[in-house]
Design brief:
Family: Belongs to the cytochrome P450 family.
CATH class: Mainly Alpha
CATH superfamily: Cytochrome P450
Number of helices: 15
Strand content: 5-15%
Distance between the termini: 67 Å
InterPro entries: Cyt_P450, Cyt_P450_E_grp-I, Cyt_P450_sf, Cytochrome_P450_monoxygenase
CATH architecture: Orthogonal Bundle
Organism: Thermomonospora curvata (strain ATCC 19995 / DSM 43183 / JCM 3096 / KCTC 9072 / NBRC 15933 / NCIMB 10081 / Henssen B9)
Bound molecules: protoporphyrin IX containing FE
Largest sheet: 5 strands, mixed
GO molecular function: heme binding; iron ion binding; monooxygenase activity; oxidoreductase activity, acting on paired donors, with incorporation or reduction of molecular oxygen
Shape: globular
Protein name: Cytochrome P450
């Protein structure tokens, strides 16, 4: 039965206990937020495969029918979590420029790290505005092509070539493990410098630390400390042509906690690896789209490095993979004051949890909801629709979006220029079939076979 709770003089709608339990069970499952180390978390991949997102999307649709337009407060004692259920409400939250809905989530709200951006919560007492300014400057947030694109693209091509290796042209299998290891080397080089290329230990420590935030055991605390020291070493060395190098050159000095900032960037590249691999799986299962990508690559001059500007269709494919299987399942905003929604009042300090797949795959609003439809990113159908939010939006929008797209498109272009992906095992993917809600990247195996070179 629907319950109401008084807040001052006004009532706000709350989920029933069974609905809260159901929501908790689908929202808080382990989730592939990041690759989590060279192999990534198998459990998270499995929950994706078993359709956790499908259940979540259906549950939210059911709640919207049952409780009305919302937003809906979760009946979790000590937490003020609120779910927006309408696209217009998502737009309102993300378009806000008054600071009423902030992406700076108060640590006292106790939001689990796995719901936060890249699974890396902001350190307590962080000066968010200063950190965001640093992110924007170093990551060149508003430039499609990063100022270090030249040296970055050379490294991207090197790592793609290393992944292809000699035998690859004979059609050897490509697995997620290999792909994520290659992308891990790349992410460490771009963020920390070439000296970090082989530092797999760091990636493993970061993955353990992410788990340790939940377990807080003695070992995890030690791992977290070792990890911090290692990261601090790279930040202090500030290699040229790396993001930490750029961080050290900020005119206003480094922000409060560069180590947490740098771990979020590394996590961002792990997310980029996942999205890139999934793009490859989609292309392998959709020969028509693949042909269009290869057509795009064929008109590039022989030695040109393909950045996102040169390959708009491939870029759209990457965005589409990010829409269909969001690596960030939730986008959060916290209200700084009491707010009114469809006649109901939500108290100050509430954390609005935007469930990304619910809006990215909204069958009522999007004709292409469950289809691989890269064209929507080119013909204007996706762009003005702010409720399709693989990279979030507004003041908290992913500061690394353009860099992620540069890395993903260049890496994929390097693989696809002379090779064609064929599916060995891509569970339930195929032309004319609805795209499943979850893709187990471990179970997705491809082969890259030599293709006639498209270069003129
Ligand atoms: C395909 C890959 C990626 C996806 C899908 C993605 C998605 C997201 C999302 C949804 C958010 C939260 C946005 C919001 O609250 O509105 C976010 C935040 C963020 N991302 Fe990414 N991201 C990716 C790659 C990256 C990369 C490569 C970097 C950095 C090198 C990065 C840096 C950040 C930062 C710094 C934030 C926090 C922004 C803030 O708090 O203001 N991301 N990302």
């Amino acid at each position: 039965m629907t319950r109401h709770r008084a807040v001052g003089e006004i009532r706000v709608q709350e989920t029933s206990v069974p609905d809260t339990v159901r929501l908790g069970g689908t929202l808080l499952v382990p989730w592939p937020v990041r690759g989590q180390g060279p192999g990534g978390s198998r459990l998270a991949a499995l929950t994706a495969r078993l359709g956790a997102d499908r259940r979540l999307v259906r549950l939210l649709a059911h709640l919207r029918r049952r409780y009305g337009p919302g937003p809906l407060r979760l009946a979790v004692p000590g937490r003020r979590l609120v779910l927006p259920l309408l696209r217009e409400d998502v737009r309102r939250l993300l378009a806000d420029s008054s600071g009423r809905f902030t992406p700076a989530i108060d640590a006292r709200a106790k939001v689990p790290p796995r719901l936060q951006a890249h699974g890396v919560p902001a350190p307590a007492g962080e000066d968010r505005q200063r950190r965001r300014r640093a992110d924007e400057t170093v990551l060149d947030t508003y430039q499609v092509v990063h100022r270090l694109a030249g040296p970055f693209m050379v490294r991207i091509y090197q790592e793609a070539a290393a992944l292809l290796g000699g035998e690859r042209s004979a059609g050897r299998e490509l697995t997620w493990r290999e792909f994520s290891a290659a992308f891990g080397r790349l992410g460490r080089r771009l963020v920390l410098g070439d000296s970090a290329r082989e530092d797999r230990m760091l990636t493993e420590l970061l993955a353990r630390t992410a788990t340790g935030r939940r377990r807080r055991g003695g070992r995890e605390r030690i791992a977290a400390e070792v990890c911090r020291r290692r990261l601090r070493g790279y930040v202090e060395r500030a290699e040229a042509d790396s993001l930490v190098g750029e961080l050290s050159r900020l005119p206003e000095g480094m922000p409060g906690d560069p180590v947490s900032q740098v771990s979020r960037w590394l996590a961002g590249f792990e997310a980029t690896a996942l999205v890139s691999y999934r793009t490859l799986a989609l292309l392998a299962a959709h020969p028509g789209h693949l042909a269009r990508v290869r057509g795009e690559l064929s008109v590039l001059p022989g030695t040109a490095l393909a950045g996102p500007v040169a390959v708009p269709y491939l870029r759209a494919c990457v965005l589409e993979a990010a829409r269909l299987w969001p690596v960030a399942r939730t986008v959060l905003r916290q209200s700084r004051g009491e707010t009114v929604w469809h006649g109901r009042t939500v108290p100050a300090g509430s954390v609005f949890v935007i469930v990304v797949p619910f809006f990215n795959r909204d069958r009522e609003a999007l004709a292409h909801a469950d289809r691989f439809a890269p064209e929507v990113w080119l013909d204007g159908r996706a762009v003005p629709d702010e409720a399709v939010v693989p990279f979030g939006g507004g003041a908290g929008r992913c500061a690394g979006e353009n860099l992620a797209l540069l890395a993903a498109t260049t890496f994929l272009a390097a693989l696809l220029r002379r090779h064609e992906p064929l599916p060995i095992r891509s569970p339930r993917l195929g032309e004319g079939r609805p795209v499943p809600y979850g893709l187990d990247h471990f179970a997705t195996r491809l082969t890259l076979v030599a293709a006639p070179t498209p270069n003129r």
